[in-house]
Amino acid sequence: MAVRIAELTVTPTPLRPGDSAHARCRVESDATVKRVYALLPNGSTITFSKVSETEFELTQQVPWDAPSGTFPITLVAETEKGERTTFAASITIS
Asked: Per 3-state DSSP, what percentage of the chain is helix, strand, and coil (rounded to 5)?
């Protein structure tokens, strides 16, 4: 089995400027996943912390000047063998 991002949760929903956003994802892979990161609409990346072999999470403050709307994000999971997969999602800021 190749690496796969099986699930993503983001709370609270919707996000608001100044909120502490918590994201958690679950991966499935035969190989060890070394990192998961999110590609944000502004081109920046945020790296998730590894909680277990299959769970990664992050807590990040939503910028006070974040605009309202629904925005695409892309998660990337990378194994120690160099395999990568992406997972398209969106976040809503109100």
From this structure: 0, 60, 40
Domains of the chain (ranges; CATH) run: 4-93 (2.60.40.1930)
State the Cα torsion 61-63-69-72 to the nearest 10°: -60
pTM: 0.91
Q: Is the dihedral of CA 62, 64, 69, 72 positive or negative?
A: negative
| Separation of alpha carbons 20 and 46, rounded Å | 14
Residues 45-64 have pLDDT tens digits of: 999 999 999 999 999 999 99
Which position has the token pair 């990664």? Answer: 56
40 within 8 A of 67, measured Cβ to Cβ: no
